[in-house]
Protein: Malate dehydrogenase
Organism: Pristionchus pacificus
Amino acid sequence: MSTALRVLITGAAGQIGYSLVLQIAKGDVFGRDTPIELVLFDIPLMTNALESIQMELIDCALSNLIGVEAVTSEKEAFTNVDFAFLAGSMPRKEGMERNDLLAANVRIFKSQGKDLAEFAKPTTKVLVVSNPANTNAFICAKYAARKIPARNFSALTRLDHNRAVAQIALKAGVTADKVKNVIVWGNHSNTQFPDASHATVTKNGVEHKAPFAVGDSNWIENEFITTVRDRGGVIIEKRKACSAFSAAKAACDHMYDWITGTPLGSFISMSVPSDGSYGVPEGKIEKGMSWTSFSGLVFSFPGLVFSFPVTISDGEWTIVKGLELNEFAKEKIALTIEELLNERDEALGACEE
Ligand code: LMR
């Protein structure tokens, strides 16, 4: 069997997919010297587009790219996958909110959860990019639970995290690498809570608390939050399509950090199944049966897939515990929990229909 990493991208012929494939192929996530096999999946209607992307990737003459498959069957797509970037679903259009998409998209993720359980490796790491990303990831993890642990599923709030970092950097007059420990709490939606209160900014070699470095606490509690959380909608309004290359870059950052780890003293925002931290409903472990065995199996069902500050080491994320939250933060976090609980119930209903 090949020792190359098998990396699946669904929605590969879409706009995010088009940016994602090259970044992954040229080593931005797994490293320039790591052999990879890319599996590009999309619906049959996109076959020509998919094949043209396959050709372009071949034409890049990348030495680490061992193979590129263009497939439209789930079985071929999900078989033996090590990493999955799930970016295929119905996209949000101008004027739509994320929950307008919910019923249609969670059914796709129910089916992909089952596909992952049936065909992928039990160690597969999954990043859900498509909206409503947190709830899609929750559903996908639930339907894959008979084989893949819930903690292998995540959703993309790194885009919001990067947007928050960039806004603070702009305001403080520094480059983005000088800003750390920003947190995006909750859902990838406009109830998310971008929180700068634990962030720091290094300016002229000295590390400051972000509110001090930007010199405007009113901005931190108002304009900063609305700019970050509404950014996706504003881009859709202007571009008449979802943000694409920034989403792809964020997906690469997310997976890179999941593999490589976070530096000492730093955390990043990642949507992961809750372990009950900060009052966010957690999942459960159940003993049960699978389709092929009748006893002794342990399944982990996901808690709410919620954006938390996490540290990562040896490919495993840990939610940063014990951060102090003021009343303002607690209220904001309660709102985004409530939205995710509603989305979860709607999604479970749609999956049972
Ligand atoms: C974004 O945040 O830009 C994307 O997730 C698009 C969207 O639907 O908000």
